[in-house]
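Researcher: Good morning. I'm working through a list of sequences from a screen, and I'd like to move beyond sequence-only analysis. For each chain I'm collecting a predicted structure so we can compare shapes side by side. This is the next one on the list. No need for commentary yet; just the structure.
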Amino acid sequence: MRNPFQYGGVVSGESFCNRTKEVAELKRAIENAEKLFVYSERRLGKTSLIRKVLRELPKEEFLTVYIDLWPTDGETSFVLACAKAFSEAMATTTDKLLQTAKTFFSRLVPSVSANDDGKPVVTFGFDQKRPDVPLLEEILAMPAQAAEKEGKRVVVVFDEFQQILEYESDVVERLLRSSIQHQTDVAYVFCGSRKHLIRQMFMDSQRPMYRSGSHYPLGLITEDHWQGFIAEKFTETGKRIGAETISAICRLTEGHPFYTQHLCHPLWELCETGGEVKPGMIDQATTLLLDRESYAFMNLWESLPRNSRRLLKGIAAEAPGIQVFSSEFLRKYQLGSSSNAQRAVEQLLKKDVIDKEEGSVVIPDRFFRLWINSKQ
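Model: Good morning. Structure tokens for this chain:
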């Protein structure tokens, strides 16, 4: 029997837990053609949520365009990612893909091939004979043009939007801000999983996207929603789990979707068909997970400077909200000075090992946090 708990990828269907309120609110924002910044910590199900919202929009009314910016590294790759996403959103056959690409992108040369499922996929090259065409402006004008051509409302989703901070210049950010200001009938959703960077982009008055839209922080899933979801998954597969055990799972994972489903996965495996999960099985499942992740955690740990490791030990051991620059914390974890701690924080933020949270810093990976504590 297949394990009913999914993690590590885009979750959909019956494997998707709750988010009823968020789905309704995001749909409403899209219907109102809002510009919205949706951000959360990593693995919180942001992409799964957004894709669920897009699937539920009426296809006869909406043209939905999803653009993953994670693989991009500058203006050129941004342009190609947008062109590909728009072309494939507007057409599904080879002929229509080519026609759409040629109609809207005058300096791009499209070619179409089939993927492993036989679905047509478009790729682009550049027409070097037309270097004078302002390609980025042409791409950014596409949503309004598509709305007019298709007779539909358009929603554009930029996932991992903070990636544009890695570009050599802010030209994409500046032109995007200018473009969306004039596209009053197009909804834009800017998603990001590095919260401090996304907040910086729309809260820093020096950034081009400053106050260019509303912000929508995505939170954890509360225990009352996990209670029914987890119990149902066990019951449907001929196993049982009590409410108190589910509460213990939620305390450990803090209601984070990835870590909750990840922990439930080995817990389900440990429970025999017809049996019930015992409280002690949580420790077994946790140990199993940490053993599986130990190699990756150890490689990361050994790659870090001494002060970064000391800082992480302190964050993992102390209660949430600890002030890592306080004299007590610096002394207890042998960091020496606040400048040492500041350098460690900057290094760990850059590596995405920690994140900023309400004036403090946190280790978002719950299992890495447990692994660190297990080694002290």
